[in-house]
Amino acid sequence: MAVNNKHDRIVDVGYINSCVEWRLGSRFFPSKVGGKPAWLDLKHIPDNLKCKECGKPCVFLCQVYAPIEDVESCFHRTIFIFVCRDPICCKENSSANFKVFRCQLKRRNNYFSFNPPIEKATWQPDVRAEHFLKLCAVCGARGQSHCGKCRKVNYCGREHQTLDWKAGHRNTCASDKASDRVVPHWLLPEFELITQPEDYESEGTHEDNESNTSEGTQEDNESNTSEETQLREYKRLVQENKAGMFHGDTSVDEHLLNMAGSEGDDVFLHYNSRIKQNPGHVLRYDRGGEPLWVSGAHVMEVPPCPNCGAPRVFEFQASDLVIQVLSTLLNHLGLDTVEKSIDWGTLLVYTVRGQL
User: Boundaries of each MYND-type domain copy (predicted)?
Assistant: First the structure.
């Protein structure tokens, strides 16, 4: 991940990608979505993964490997995000249903080689948290309790023990087949998260090259103009209580309708225009930069760290990640309605500037 100065910023954008499972192990310092966490500090794993709204365990959403190589204590550095899968806990401008953790290690540490990893399935396969701690068979968090009958499978709490029992452990308990297992449909689908520099042409660049506008650029401009017209028209219809005529019209972008009528129309148009320059990306990394706000109505003041009082700085945002990742789970999780769904325009992550 790039760390840039504000005068010459390079934003990294992330895409989800299918890959072989072994590449997502802790020894390769992955950025990933779904599955179980690939822990960085293999002996010190957080155990407070419960939603602040409902008290139930959160599911692993994603992790971003973001080292700061010129800071000794941050040579290896990963940020982990967990989310409650209950749609009732998902509320506007609230992070109560999320858990975010930052972990960092020196280059010389007790787990990983001083030299870069070798991209082979057979390279140091024992370097994983399971060799240092007992982990929950369902979610991969610290497993502080175990099945009282077979004593072979560990869990983070009663909720996941019950879930695993119903999912099939009752059929294998106390047998030679009793082992750690993933409960179907509970974990999110697992993908690699790969990043590359953003392909971005600023508005100023468009103006400078106006005399040499290509056919493709003309089409982009026409698309943006059409989208802006659509947004203004929908706002007018909302004010006149005639917006219903758009219902069922698949040509109107769903997100456009969600944002229309807000005070942040211009902000949203800028957001949408820039997002579309890199189609399909689900993450934007710009440590120390500025987030790409979805709407001016949702811009918020970021409070300082409650532990040390230091100011927080923007690090990355996950844009429409839920749509990319959860689409195959909506039926299983009961999240396939507009009224009850885990959804957000963008998820912003801020971290403390100090790295002690």
Answer: 136-173
